[in-house]
Amino acid sequence: MRLVVLPGDGIGPEISAATCEILQLLNERMSLGVSFETHEIGLARLRRENTTFPASVAEACRAADGIVLGPVSHATYPSRAAGGINVSGELRITLDLYANIRPSRTREGLPHWGRTPMDLVIVRENTEGFYADRNMYWGVGEFMPTPDLALAVRKISAQGSRRIAKSGFELAMSRRKKVTAVHKANVMKVSDALFLREVRDVAKKYPDVMYEEQLVDSMAALLVREASRFDVIITTNMFGDILSDEAAELSGSLGLAGSINTGEVHGMAQAQHGSAPDIAGQDRANPISLILSAAMLLNWLSRKHHKENFGLAAKAIEQAIDALLKDSGKRTCDLGGPLGTKAFTAALSNEISRHAR
Ligand code: NAD
């Protein structure tokens, strides 16, 4: 089983190193048989080779069984013509990673900022929507006909809506069997009507799942007021991006939320947050988001290849993180704790070692 690791920019190298340390530990303890291949991407690669994402690295990703991608500082990348390829968007499109699964849950003993506890998953369409770098075959989905007029294209397709709906309903069947479709069809009367048409049609095939719909603006408020009433939330690309950061922060911290991008063939673990340049290189990043994303990748590989020990390794990570988070002395700074990235990773290794065999 070959995993490609792309550390990325900002805090990416620090949290990727932490993630590799935990995966390596489980690899040894649970005989996973995983080999790791690390490739430099992002601003460091741009300085060396005039591109943030060389074709050889893209090929290595395609050939791998799974990818672990650290956050990238793509807001500061030069244009694509000058070598600034957004690695995250590029991999989502070229490997057709259409489903971005983003769970958020509160944990016993850890303060949360929403009014109720939560245990929900945002299922976000990942390859179309308002994302200008990925919604066109040729060219980009944002343009300026005159210096004072900017236009953006939002792509919603029946196939894209249908397959993300299926992913969400399948997931709901293994959880509390409730789906909420989030949209803005009162204003986007054409594109979100198409999205809802497809989700409603898929819903008919899952009579055991309770189905409801919610406007995105009121959803933002309900996540604060009563997140406990939601189970699986299916939505389009940008709404899912924004709501998942909100849910993660309300559950305790943006640094806690795992995230995986999957398609029919490929899977990629990726932290929910960005590259946090404000704390990069200071040993202050919380590595949990990327480590939990890697656990989601292990679970995905476990199901895909029928490898039970991969599922057990994922469980070992989740249980050890829950155990540490109960103790305020074992938390990172974003959670008000005293630990830096390295000390937290060492504590997590110890916790896993006590249980995993
Ligand atoms: P951000 O998520 O990087 O940071 C927002 C805030 O949360 C910052 O104060 C940061 O210090 C904090 N934070 C984020 N992750 C943390 C962690 N693990 N531990 C502790 N604190 C953490 O968002 P931003 O500042 O808006 O974006 C920075 C860069 O990241 C931009 O270039 C943006 O384009 C990029 N970005 C990348 C991805 C990705 O690679 N998937 C996602 C979002 C943003």
Notable characteristics:
single chain; 357 residues; alpha/beta; two-stranded antiparallel sheet; binds nicotinamide-adenine-dinucleotide
Task: Write up this protein.
There is one protein chain. With 357 residues, this protein is an alpha/beta fold. Helix content is 42%, strand content 17%. The chain contains eleven helices and twelve strands. The strands form two sheets. Strands 2-1-3-12-11-4-5-10-8-9 form a ten-stranded mixed sheet, sandwiched between helices. A two-stranded antiparallel sheet has the order 6-7. It is globular. It starts with a strand and ends with a helix. The structure holds nicotinamide-adenine-dinucleotide.
Write a compact overview of the structure shown:
With 357 residues, the chain is of the alpha/beta class. It has eleven helices and twelve strands. The longest helix is centred in the first third of the chain and has 18 residues, at 12-29.
The percentage of residues in β strands lies in: 15-25%
Tell me, briefly, the overall form: globular
Between the first and last Cα atoms, what is the distance in angstroms?
20 Å
Major sheet details: 10 strands, mixed
Helix content: 40-55%
Counting DSSP E segments of at least 2 residues, the number of strands comes to: 12
SS class: alpha/beta
Q: Cofactors and ligands present?
A: nicotinamide-adenine-dinucleotide
Major sheet strand order: 2-1-3-12-11-4-5-10-8-9
Mean pLDDT: 96
> Helix tally?
11
Series of H and E elements: EHEHHEHEEEEHEHEHEHEEHHH
Low-confidence stretches: none
Radius of gyration: 20 Å
